[in-house]
Automatic annotation (TrEMBL):
<dbReference type="InterPro" id="IPR004360">
    <property type="entry name" value="Glyas_Fos-R_dOase_dom"/>
</dbReference>
<keyword id="KW-0560">Oxidoreductase</keyword>
<feature type="domain" description="VOC">
    <location>
        <begin position="11"/>
        <end position="131"/>
    </location>
</feature>
<protein>
    <submittedName>
        <fullName>Ring-cleaving dioxygenase</fullName>
    </submittedName>
</protein>
<dbReference type="InterPro" id="IPR037523">
    <property type="entry name" value="VOC_core"/>
</dbReference>
<keyword id="KW-0223">Dioxygenase</keyword>
<dbReference type="Pfam" id="PF00903">
    <property type="entry name" value="Glyoxalase"/>
</dbReference>
<dbReference type="InterPro" id="IPR050383">
    <property type="entry name" value="GlyoxalaseI/FosfomycinResist"/>
</dbReference>
<dbReference type="GO" id="GO:0051213">
    <property type="term" value="F:dioxygenase activity"/>
</dbReference>
<dbReference type="InterPro" id="IPR029068">
    <property type="entry name" value="Glyas_Bleomycin-R_OHBP_Dase"/>
</dbReference>
């Protein structure tokens, strides 16, 4: 790509998590992170947040085409919040989700972030971050 060329890709629309129990995954992400469960296609499940979604594939019943080695617990996701990290930490505590690390300073796609790490029911590493330049972090 040359300096003046527009990128071919401009944003993430969705990603797919392979999970052991889609209903347990939905309950977790809805309760802990406030994502909205949605059904689409022929009863498929996804989690909606903003203009992005996470589609769910049940391990052993993946929908083609799928990743070469779809495996529960193999994802490492960074999600951005605009609210205070204290609210994230409180929600984790209220739902009995242990914080694995954080808050710690990291570097996000657009600059410095402050992050909290924890795991979902399949063991995926979830990082919820807030950009440091936002007031009241």
């Amino acid at each position: 790509m040359t300096e003046n060329e527009e990128p071919l890709v401009v944003r993430l629309d969705h990603l797919v998590l392979t999970v052991r129990d889609p209903q347990a995954t939905v309950r977790f992400y809805e309760a802990v992170l406030g994502m909205k469960p949605v059904r689409f296609g022929e009863g498929r499940l996804a989690l909606q947040f903003g203009n992005t979604k996470i589609n769910l594939h049940q391990a052993g019943a993946e929908i083609a085409p799928y990743a070469l080695r779809p495996t529960p617990g193999s994802a490492d996701l960074c999600l951005i919040t605009e609210g205070p990290l204290d609210a994230v930490r409180r929600r984790l505590s209220e739902n009995g989700v242990p914080i694995e690390l954080g808050p710690v300073k990291r570097t996000g796609a657009a600059g410095p972030i402050l992050s909290v790490y924890f795991r979902d029911p399949d063991g995926n590493l979830i990082e919820v971050s807030r950009y440091e330049d936002q007031a009241g972090s």
